[in-house]
Prior knowledge:
The protein is of the alpha+beta class and 399 residues long. Helices cover 26% and strands 26% of the residues. It is built from eleven helices and 21 strands. It has helices spanning 37-42, 46-53, 180-183, 194-202, 219-227, 239-243, 249-266, 294-298, 320-335, 352-357, 368-383, and strands at 8-10, 17-18, 22-25, 30-33, 59-64, 69-80, 91-95, 98-103, 109-113, 120-123, 128-132, 140-145, 152-159, 163-165, 173-178, 205-210, 232-236, 272-275, 290-292, 304-306, 341-344. The strands form five sheets. Strands 1, 6, 9, 10, 11 and 13 form a six-stranded mixed beta sheet that branches. β7 and β8 (98-103) form a beta hairpin. The longest helix has 18 residues, at 249-266.
Amino acid sequence: MTIPSAPITTPVTADLLRGALDTEATxxxxxxxxxxxxxxxxxxxxxxxMAESQPSxxxxxxxxxxxxxxLDTVPVKRNYAGAPxxxxxxxxxxxxxxxxxxxxxxxxxxxxxxPATGRAEHRTGPPATLRFTGLxxxxxxxxxWLPHDETTELVALRTDAPVSPAPAGGRRVWAHHGSSxxxxxxxxxxxxxxxxxxxxxxxxxxxxxxxxxxxxLDPFTARALRDHPADLISVKLGINLVNTDLMRxxxxxxxxxxxxxxxxxxxxxxxxxxxxxxxxxIHEDTPGPTAFDTAALAAGRLRFRATGDPAERAAGKxxxxxxxxxxxxxxxxxxxxxxxxxxxxxxxxYGEADAxxxxxxxxxxxxxxxxxxxxxxxxxxxxxxxxxxxxGSGQRRQV
Length: 399
């Protein structure tokens, strides 16, 4: 089914988007960004540029009596040379908060990454059209969640009834920063990422600054958190610092302090939760860097391995065990003067027993079932009555 002969075309503008910190007008449409322009201008890393342009947690939100919705997009399919093609990104449509359809965009651009050489090839393709039909004919709030792991330029929105921006819902805004696990790697759809699940269960508005491979204590990311309105903030730190072997323990502590200092400049009294890494057996006591498992890749599977030497911990190399100890120490120290600062050991979200029952498929990222597990646990620990972000009816957890 297509829209009748006289569809209403509504420009896709920033006031129809939630969860994005910025937008960019391109030659083909509107590109949502999860970092502001100033941060992007200070970045020289292609991995971060790719991650922040993938709209995890970003949704198109409007009010309309439309029964048919069409969205033209230019997705960017990301594939790895030698590995099977990745699944297409998923767009999820909700009507008044309830699931009402899913679709994927065929066509678009393709980014081919070669893990062996680090080279990337961008191939241009045509726009794609998503169609959602059979929606109720009453006035309603419509949300289209964009793919969490696929860049998409929004070209055109067409409906069979007028569209207007949906009013704000009055929910608390939760801004979260983390790694690819927070962005949603391993989840099968955008509302299946653990932050999206936790936000839904906690009744909060999500701003997801989970940046695949890029939770690296960058000052411009701290400034983005500082400058964005938020009622609740969490930062999940550690795994990417080991993956990249970016710094030693001497630099880690001051960098964490500086990151938190910057966030506090804009949010001096906002509840702020520091979350350490979930269990990742390959890096618990073995430093990075992390590398692709070439033997697995030759067999058509994507898997990772740790390449460091446990003996290098003596020289200050970071492991997840070291990072957890340091984060707990730093939060204890700061909490003496900051009563709104909290700490959560990531193993409360995914620990040894979970790794035995639900092992990380590629040795690094959770699967869909584990995203649900983490999201449900975070919602209870953070948004429950006795949680870090709770309503105060219970006993708030302390450091």
